[in-house]
Design brief:
The complex is a heterodimer of chains A (257) and B (367). By secondary structure, chain A is an all-alpha fold. Chain A has 13 helices and no strands. By secondary structure, chain B is of the alpha+beta class. Chain B has 8 helices and 20 strands. Classes of the chains: A mainly alpha (257), B alpha+beta (367).
Chain lengths: 257, 367
């Protein structure tokens, strides 16, 4: 089995090794990405002080939280509609439609949205956040949907039958039995959607109105000009947030059903 | 309109068909049964015989394709389960994993909107009834299978349903615990005075606990009666075969009069057989099936007894010994003899033997 261990180690190396210099140089005192000039939190401080970064961060969080909340609510309803109904004609098609964002190339969706939103912008003269929230909600839905559906499918249906047998109306059975048991799945779906929205670049770049940079698109903009370890510092923070959220997601999913 | 309220449940010509067209499956086929108040009634049959479907229709989880179900004389066939004063103990128990033992038991009462004080009192009474008071705050995954079983019972009994439905609730327990729970269930039924409808494929459970047993096969009730009726006077070949250990003998009717039939056994002599109620009297010359329970025949010397053959096999099973006799017509006949201390083995394999059947030991069944 040593051969397989070797391949596994190589895969992990390819996946994670490039992250090491990124994180290390975020703590570099100098402004070079290649010459180490001593340990410092200078670039973290500089990013913290940068008003553009502050704005982009707040926008990213507002966007990610809005998109995650809406997509999780929609995904929960979709998951109930695809697991708690007797199988109907076209159920497979419904699965496919819900998971569409996983199949359609992101750039295609982005271009399509760019065109549609351009028309709406021209007609309504509205330039707010709603475009981004709508677009992010749409591509977050399958990510929220999958863990919720998995949880629902793993749940013993007899529990809901038992609730009905014990005089619970369908609504009460949902509130007292289904929802509490589904909760870890909903949280997991929310966190996955949040992370996916937080680091989206392609759709955001094409859909955003002027002055609506999110953290990733701001960083992309910076990289086109001059590269400073400030970008490394922001990347490291984003990385840390993702690791924490995904770890919580992992433990939620692992929790006993 | 209220009908005859001597009956807790009346099932009238109920049919349940699953699927449509070529895949249609008649799970329950025009079944009618009147279940008395305070009765312990068991639906007994092999898996797929329709017993669970019938139970689920009384609970409201399935709706009949045809026919009516009445509860205390009122039609309930199309009410949803949460509007029926009927509770179920599920085979898998289906305890709510996010609630404690006490919260599980309180659930039905809370859904009925009972005041908090009454809920607490009833929950306490139920915990005492099933002897689980000290485990009230445990989570349901922290208690044993037998204890989960008791909680499931308490939860279903707490709202004091008109009828308690039990869907093979003992099948997940080991032998010793199952024995204890059989007695426990009988006690709970007499203490609460609630009508119990119990579903099982286990004949021993059915015979020990029930006031009456309905034997089902292929969606129909074949025979309904007290455990003694069912065991002593099976009316159908299937019933005789499913309950108890039974020999089937081919015979020809010599004559038939007043509930008694004289038969000529293909593998032996003429015997007098009982005709259970519900079996149409045969006429002379008819070919019929006669049944003899294993314990109603014993071995004798060759030439004595109504049957003769060769002793093929002797199987010792602790309390009893089973003697397998190959009869002259090729069928195998088994005799079960209870063992005692001063037995001496007088029969050995390969010996020609006779079989002596007790008087009233033979009867005719429907094929």
């Amino acid at each position: 089995m040593t051969g397989f261990t070797g391949i596994a180690v190589l895969c992990f190396l390819v996946l994670y090794a490039p992250l090491v210099p990124l994180v290390v140089y975020s703590f570099n005192h100098g402004s070079s990405l290649a010459i180490w000039e001593g340990l410092s939190l200078r670039w973290y401080y500089s990013a913290w002080e940068n008003e553009l970064v502050q704005e982009a961060t707040i926008r990213s969080l507002v966007l990610a939280i809005s998109a995650a909340v809406i997509s999780t609510a929609v995904a929960t309803m979709a998951a109930l509609g695809t697991t708690r109904t007797s199988p109907y004609k076209g159920l497979t098609l419904v699965y496919a439609l819900i998971n569409q964002p996983l199949m359609v190339p992101e750039i295609v969706t982005a271009v399509a949205l760019l065109i549609v939103f351009a028309v709406i912008r021209a007609a309504t003269d509205y330039h707010g956040m709603a475009y981004l929230i709508l677009a992010h909600t749409a591509f977050c839905i399958p990510f929220a949907y999958l863990p919720i559906r998995a949880r629902l499918e793993g749940m013993d249906l007899t529990l809901e039958t038992a609730a009905a047998d014990l005089y619970a109306t369908p609504l009460k059975a949902f509130k007292r039995v289904t929802l509490p048991l589904l909760w870890p799945g909903i949280l997991a779906g929310f966190m996955l959607a949040f992370v996916i929205s937080l680091d989206d670049v392609v759709i955001t770049e094409l859909v955003k109105s002027a002055g609506q940079d999110t953290l990733p698109t701001y960083m992309l903009g910076q990289l086109r000009r001059v590269i400073t370890p400030e970008v490394n510092a922001i990347s490291t923070v984003l990385l840390a947030i993702s690791v924490v959220v995904v770890t919580i997601f992992f433990f939620l999913n692992k929790e006993k059903r | 309109m209220r009908g005859d309220t001597d009956f807790a449940v009346q099932v009238k010509g109920v049919t349940k068909v699953f699927g449509t067209g070529a895949q249609a499956f008649r799970a329950v086929d025009e079944v009618s049964i009147d279940i008395q108040q305070n009765e312990f009634l068991t639906l007994l049959g092999p898996s797929g015989c329709g017993k669970t479907t019938l139970l689920r229709m009384i609970a409201g989880f399935e709706h009949p394709t045809a026919g009516q179900i009445l509860l205390d004389g009122a039609e309930i066939s199309h009410l949803p389960p949460y509007q029926r004063p009927v509770n179920t103990v599920f085979q898998s128990y289906a305890l709510f994993p996010h609630m404690t033992v006490a919260q599980n038991i309180a659930f039905g009462l809370e859904m009925l909107g009972k005041p908090a004080g009454e809920v607490r009192q009833t929950v306490d009474a139920m915990l005492t009834l099933v002897r689980m008071a000290e485990l009230r705050d445990r989570r349901t995954d922290q208690i044993s299978g037998g204890q989960q079983q008791r909680v499931a019972l308490a939860r279903a009994l707490a709202p004091h349903p008109k009828v308690l439905l039990l869907d093979e609730p003992l099948s997940a327990l080991d032998y010793k615990l199952r024995k204890d729970m059989q007695i426990e269930l009988k006690r709970l039924q007499s203490e609460t005075g609630i009508t119990f409808v119990f579903v099982t494929h286990d004949q021993e459970e059915a015979l020990t606990m029930s006031n009456r047993v309905a034997v089902m096969n292929q969606g129909k009730i074949l025979q309904l009666g007290t455990p003694r009726d069912i065991y002593d006077h099976p009316a159908e070949r299937f019933v005789a075969d499913f309950i108890g250990d039974t020999n089937f003998l081919n015979a020809q009717v010599v004559n038939s009069a007043g509930g008694k039939v004289t038969l000529k056994l293909t593998a032996g002599e003429e015997v007098t057989a009982d005709l259970p109620g519900g079996v149409a009297p045969p006429v002379a010359g008819d070919s019929v099936t006669a049944v003899v329970r294993w314990e109603h025949a014993k071995l004798t010397a060759q030439g004595a007894g109504q049957l003769s053959g060769t002793l093929a096999n002797v199987v010792y099973v602790g309390t009893d010994t089973h003697y397998y006799v190959e009869l002259s017509d090729g069928t195998t006949f088994v005799s079960r003899i209870q063992n005692s201390r001063d037995d001496e083995l007088t029969f050995s394999e390969g010996m020609p033997v006779g079989v002596s059947i007790e008087s009233n030991g033979v009867q005719v069944v429907r094929n």
